[in-house]
Amino acid sequence: MKNKATKSLRLTRFLLGTLTSALLLTQASISLADVAPITTQGNKLLFGGQPGSISGNSLFWSNNGWGGEKYYNAATVSWLKSDWNSKLVRAAMGVEDGGGYLEDPAGNKAKVRRVVDAAIANDMYVIIDWHSHKAENYRGQAVEFFREMAQTYGKNNHVIYEVYNEPLNVSWSGTIKPYAEAVIDAIRAVDPDNLIIVGTPNWSQDVDQAANNPITGRGNIAYTLHFYSNGHRQWLRDKASYALSRGIPLFVTEWGSVEPSGNGNVDANETWAWVDFMKANGISNANWSINDKAEGASALTSGASGNGGWAKNQLTASGALAKDITYSWPALAGGSGGSGGTGGTGGTGNCVETGLNTLIQAEDYCQMSGIQTENTSDAGGGKNVGWIDLNDWVTYSTNVPSAGSYKISYRVASKTETGHIQLESAGGTQTYGTLQFAPTGDWQSWTTVSHTVTLPAGKQTIGIKALSGGWNINWIKIEATGSNSSSSSSSSSGGGSLTQVAVQQAESYSYMSGIQTESTSDAGGGQNVGWIDSGDWLSYVNTPINIPSTGTYEIEYRVASQSAGGSLNLEEAGGVVHGTINFPATGGWQTWASVKHRVTLTAGSHKFGLKANSSGFNINWFKISKVN
What we know:
Blueprint: H1 4-27, E1 38-41, E2 44-47, E3 50-51, E4 55-59, H2 74-84, E5 88-94, H3 105-121, E6 125-131, H4 139-153, E7 159-162, H5 172-188, E8 196-198, H6 201-204, H7 207-212, E9 221-228, H8 234-245, E10 250-256, H9 268-281, E11 285-290, H10 317-327, E12 347-348, E13 360-361, E14 367-369, E15 372-375, E16 383-386, E17 393-400, E18 404-413, E19 419-425, E20 431-437, E21 447-455, E22 458-466, E23 472-482, E24 498-505, E25 511-513, E26 516-519, E27 527-530, E28 537-539, E29 545-547, E30 551-560, E31 566-572, E32 577-583, E33 593-601, E34 604-606, E35 608-612, E36 618-627
Parallel strand pairs: 4-5, 4-11, 5-6, 6-7, 7-8, 8-9, 9-10, 10-11
Antiparallel strand pairs: 1-2, 2-3, 12-14, 13-23, 14-17, 15-16, 17-22, 18-21, 18-23, 19-20, 19-22, 24-36, 25-28, 26-27, 28-35, 29-34, 30-33, 30-36, 31-32, 31-35
Helix pairs in contact: 2-3, 4-5
């Protein structure tokens, strides 16, 4: 492994530089533990005077007995900061509905304060949200509440006031605007400068109405835009574009990847279109919601802890996508790290988006933890990523045209250590595959290694996680290998002939959780496994499979899905994930297709397991073949 003393020396220099900066900032009366003030300039938000945007999470309604209140605590906020890379949290305080502020003002204020205090302690921005659909009926209570919040938190740059969550179909000029002006005046009498966000008509969609008659004479105001991707599409982005063209800043204080009702399937493509739109226009945002309610918009599965610490299988499909987006959101200007930096525990880089057949330069990461960069002697020059230790990671932005099988190549070097790479979605919500490679003999002796994985379609942020230390990486390349759906054969779209090792009937499990079996119409008859939900699993510990030699193996699964598609892990039963495969819908519960990916397996006896990362598919069997 590369000399740890060298890394320590660099870290020492980094810390000394940080301490020097801290002293200078202290002299300027700016706290390093603080966040930059937010101001508006035309249709932009400025953070410390620089254009930018932030991404994070909205909590569910605070109302007593509604279920989401258990997440109103410091542990949840801290987990969102550390595990999701969230820069923002929203305390959605219910007002007129049962268990809300009007019924229990002290209890709901206490929940809000816990979230605000935790956000400040974690150097996060926090929205204090008057979560109402009829706020104009409770103007007096709103004025009193926000005056108290401003008196308590007005000196903290972290705090943002959202004075009206989602007005219904009421007049902007005659109802919403005069209400907002009264509440804004109460806040400004105490707090002259923190950002205030005002809701807009029709569930905060008609931002064009606010743009035609904006609030004047009162500074640092933004306007609320809400969207749910599986329903709110280009027509709503057109409204937002019009509002921006009129010079008002927008803030998406609530968004979801499902239907506007909060239920339905995730529309990933439309969600990424919204992400692109928000990034291009500097629009900050919070995903709805951190809760375990049984609805599509909930980020968590039922029973997820109220104190963070959520495992991958405790994220819903919408939660996993939200984490991916939030985790990889571009950092504000002035963040640590960078493509030419010498390291630290974490930071941001150039984040250059690439497509197929284009080299992803390792130093052009979006986010990183633990690594450093250095000049490389490899062909093409530039820099490589090095000083890699166990569990270090980097993320990259890419655009995959369609779901399917892809060859992933890595340009690597290692003096003495065997390298072990895990390719995953940013934040680790899905593992696509792992790869091991032998030492190359020197830190700058380069070789190219590759494996085949299945990737979902669309713009996404992928991550490379180090499952071992002591190696360098110069670039990554993604290349199409053909469809991931085919029939069984003696060769593979990934290249190389195949030698079949074993076929495992899905219903012949040793242990299971959550599934059921049924008769199948697939070739060969028998039964298939169905009624699969996210988090269900199958263990085959009583039928171990002998892998003849260490190397690359193709895993083929016989699957069917009416409309949702599927995602599953091949695991060592109860243990290590060997790889993840995602596949599209086949059009029916008994419309069968074979999907494949490649993984690296070690020689010897293996007790395999399958784990569902999503719901809505059946499986009949899986087959393991050695790639020759």
